[in-house]
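Our consortium's second objective concerns turning raw sequence data into structural hypotheses that experimental partners can test. To show how far this objective has progressed, the report includes one record in full. It was chosen at random from the queue rather than selected for favorable results. The single chain below, 349 residues long, was entered without modification.
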Amino acid sequence: MIKLCVLGTGGMANAHANEFKKIKDVKIVGCCDIRKEAAAKFAETHGVPAAYTDLKEMLDKEKPDAVTNVTIDAAHCPTSLEIIKRKIHVLCEKPLATNAGDAWKMVEAAKKARVINMVNFSYRGSCALQKVSEIVRNGTIGELRHVEASYLQSWLISAGWGDWRKSPGLLWRLCTKAGSKGDLGDIGVHIFDFMTFICGDIKKIDCKLKTFDKGLGTDTVNGMRLDANDSFCALVEFKNGALGNIHSSRWATGHANSLRLRVFGTKGGICLDLDKSWNEFEICVGQKNINGFKWKTVKAPKTPNIYNRFIKSIRTGKNDQPDFATAAKVQEYLDGCFKSDETGKTVKI
């Protein structure tokens, strides 16, 4: 039996709990949140026997084998280090930290403690994404030349996700003092992960961030200054020589949660649109198809999700991906974007 604790009991924690409860011989023995009422409600909802407001107390009393860390971005580093110090395995929400320096500290701590460490880049759970990575890396579409990636949301202009002015879960994402890194840190992190998982590491970044006026006549709502970036565009060069265009926004009318990647090489192209399908992608290979501009839709075989792979890693002692080191690289890309925007120059990674 693997004893698991849940740290942070916000919206995403419910998804973690629901998935872990499906896995045989995994028991959630405790949950923790600085908000007493939130922890108590979460415990009642998921049948968790103990709720805490102090992480150290939970770890000392429950002595879990693993913790899933679903705290806010700014808390990932200090709380994960506390968990790792006790040689407890940890699955952390993305981004791993708020800067690359802290992320690499977490990598070294996990390595020294020899604990399983993984990061919930949730789109890695797409079987289509896993298959596309395999196809690109085995050379089916040849040497990479051009990559296009986007992640579009519209909750700043649409009430489909609720009114961001009244929703704490959305509002904090617009405020840097609340720990937000804006659109770049929130969903751009996903773009950089799934893009590099398929196309390889990045060596140069040129990025522009933008925070738009919200039309309220003020830049502060409920004490939170609306200063985090809403949109970004970046031009990247991969280590393999390919160029990439990346863009993301919270102002993309008509898009709830649209994530797309298109990769073009010397032998073909491949397109992944997770807004349309989690398990299908399109590919254009073979001279006949290339000459005729014909794309084939392919259904990928099912793959285990991050929660199953985390538990399997604990049981086998073999750390699956994405691990902390992978996430630290992504954090370097995010830091590079902020530096490029600040200096107006291309940044080498």
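The partners drew two points from this record. The mean pLDDT is 96. The domain at 124-303+331-348 is CATH 3.30.360.10 (Dihydrodipicolinate Reductase; domain 2). Both points have been shared with the crystallography group to help prioritize constructs.
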